[in-house]
Design a protein that fits this description.
The complex is a heterodimer of chains A (266) and B (275). With 266 residues, chain A is an all-alpha fold. Chain A is built from eleven helices and no strands. Chain A has helices at residues 2-34, 46-57, 60-93, 95-108, 117-124, 128-152, 156-164, 169-206, 212-221, 225-253, 258-265. In chain A, helix 3 (60-93) packs parallel to helix 6. The two termini of chain A are 15 Å apart. Chain B is mainly alpha-helical and 275 residues long. Chain B is built from eleven helices and no strands. Chain B folds into two domains: 1-47; 55-274, MetI-like fold (Orthogonal Bundle). Classes of the chains: A mainly alpha (266), B mainly alpha (275). At the A-B interface, helix 1, helix 4, helix 5, helix 8 and helix 9 of A face helix 1, helix 4, helix 5, helix 8 and helix 9 of B.
């Protein structure tokens, strides 16, 4: 009990400082154009941006665009994760495949996915599939590499124990490989979720399929600075939301795991 | 007689094994890529889809497109901006991260802000920086820094914060100077995390280099590739993708070498702990 009362003023202080920091940032943002350090044409007032945000939040078209972005994000992430889990498990479990694919993986992985944008445009034009190609390519590697590490990380003693107890292949997969690989998989999916969002919005900016990214590009070319900043803030909030949700899922699904239990005890 | 045959047997068997090992050493890393290239070549020569030219066509286009003046006009400036952006991100990220990591109140003050800035997808900053700075070379470097600095900054903060408490108390009781403390305790302790951040920053930097050029430029690698695509120069476009891939691989390999040097002590400790 006394531990709690000791900790509370600390976390209260933390929240207070955080709020002060955030407010300070917004005040500085408001002051810079007010004092004329940067023309408000290029850096609009914070108040204008927030007014615009409130306006957008009441607009149905905004939510539809958000829907487009999140749809391609979700489809891309789901396809990439499914493919990466299946392929990663197979490659990770078979040493021969792991050695044989190593060079190909090490060459394909660092290729920046945005390099594929021209190819995607050629193949699919400005449809959602073009964005999906890029999203899937980028997020696939995040999960794939983690799954390979995770599957290969099975404890030697546990593996031998399982073998001497005569566990079937199915049982080995669900009691031995899955629990070992799950923390890696969750890390991979969390990273992939962030990457998929980045590329969903990037694809809309560069390719021009409908969504938030396209609105950013349109605001820029129309010289609508307030709208541009408002949409950038929206994408930031979206990224924050994705991070928080996936961190929460990670903690929940790994509540039995040492890394999470250890944190909670401290 | 027996010794003679014995010696021959002795000599031939490791030679044979060595040969096999060399063959496996080549086959494993090169077998699958070679196989894939052959399959691609066969598939493209029998199909009529002109978006997927064969590897030979792409290699020819690669030589014709990038070897020569295009390398100096388009590739080198891109790589220069990339290097500049990465260097600036590393310096800013480590300096600011160390400062923020050392003072708890500063960390708590800035934490929500940093979380937000990290969550912004870096490419959306391109239009913002364009608005503030116009379409210049500086803008492209600033774009790269504005995206690549966050992973380095946040990892440095975490690394500095997690300095071993016994070591920092030892440092306190030995009354080493502020500078010595930074040089011999804080930065080495944080370096594994810093290197993780730099690795993430590198891939962000490369992405931003490409997009900033696709978006607002009349030269550079990203611009060239988009230009080839718009003009249906398919083989040239593929050669550009190949070149970007090579840049990515080279960047990753360089980082691997640097990381091994910087973290040699760290990997050594981990080996010992594992054994």
């Amino acid at each position: 009990m006394h531990v709690l009362s000791l900790r509370r003023p600390r976390s209260l202080r933390k929240v207070m400082l955080g709020v002060v920091g955030l407010t300070g940032f917004l005040v500085v943002w408001q002051l810079v154009p007010t004092l004329g350090l940067i023309n408000s044409q290029y850096l609009p007032y914070v108040t204008d941006v927030f007014a615009r945000l409130a306006e957008e939040f009441r607009d149905l078209a905004f939510w539809r665009r958000l829907g487009y972005t999140m749809t391609s994000w979700a489809i891309g992430l789901a396809v990439a994760t499914a493919a990466a889990v299946v392929l990663g498990t197979i490659v990770g479990l078979v040493p021969f495949l792991r050695r044989a694919t190593h060079t190909v993986v090490e060459f394909l992985r660092p290729i920046p996915s945005v390099a594929l944008i021209p190819l995607a445009v050629l193949l699919f034009g400005i449809q959602m599939q073009a964005a999906l190609l890029i999203i899937i390519y980028a997020s696939f590697w995040q999960v794939f590499v983690q799954v390979i590490y995770g599957v290969a990380d099975v404890d030697a003693v546990a593996r031998d124990t399982a073998r001497s107890f005569g566990l079937t292949r199915r049982e080995r997969l669900s009691y031995l490989v899955l629990p070992t690989a799950l923390p890696y998989l969750m890390t991979g999916v969390r990273l992939a979720a962030a990457v998929a969002l980045i590329l969903a919005i990037t694809a809309e900016m560069v390719i021009g399929n409908p969504g938030l990214g396209r609105m950013i590009e349109l605001s820029r070319s129309a010289g609508d600075a307030v709208g541009l900043y408002a949409f950038v803030v929206v994408t930031g909030l979206l990224g924050l939301l994705v991070n928080l949700v996936f961190r929460f899922i990670e903690r929940r699904s790994l509540s039995w795991h040492q890394s999470v239990r250890g944190e909670e005890v401290l | 007689m027996t010794t003679h045959t014995g010696r021959i047997g002795y000599r031939s068997s490791p030679g044979w094994r060595l040969g096999r090992r060399v063959a496996a050493g080549f086959l494993y890393p090169l077998g699958l890529p070679f196989l894939l290239l052959v399959i691609w070549g066969l598939a493209s020569s029998s199909s009529t889809n002109r978006f997927f030219p064969g590897p030979v066509t792409i290699f020819e286009a690669f030589r014709e497109t990038w070897v020569g003046p295009a390398f100096v006009d388009d590739v080198l400036p891109s790589l220069y901006r990339l290097a500049l952006g990465i260097a600036a991100s590393i310096v800013i990220g480590i300096a600011a991260g160390t400062l923020i990591g050392l003072f708890q109140w500063l960390r708590e003050l800035l934490e929500p802000l940093l979380e937000f800035f990290r969550a912004i997808p870096p490419p959306v900053l391109i239009p913002v920086v364009m608005l503030l700075l116009g379409i210049t070379d500086t803008m492209k470097v600033v774009v790269i820094v504005s995206g690549a600095v966050w992973p380095i900054l946040l990892n440095t903060i975490d690394g500095v914060r997690a300095t071993d408490s016994v070591m920092s108390e030892t440092a306190d009781s030995f009354q080493i100077t502020w500078w010595e403390r930074l040089r011999f305790l804080v930065l080495p302790a944080a370096s594994p995390r810093i290197m993780t951040g730099v690795r993430q920053g590198l891939s962000v930097a490369l992405i931003l280099m490409v997009i900033s050029e696709m978006f607002a430029s009349s030269a550079g690698l990203g611009y060239r590739i988009a230009y080839f695509q718009r003009n249906y120069l398919i083989a040239e476009m593929w050669s550009g993708i190949l070149l970007l891939g090579l840049v990515g691989v080279l960047l990753a390999a360089t980082f691997g070498v640097v990381e091994r040097r910087v973290l040699r002590w760290y990997h050594g400790i981990r080996e010992v702990n594992r054994a």
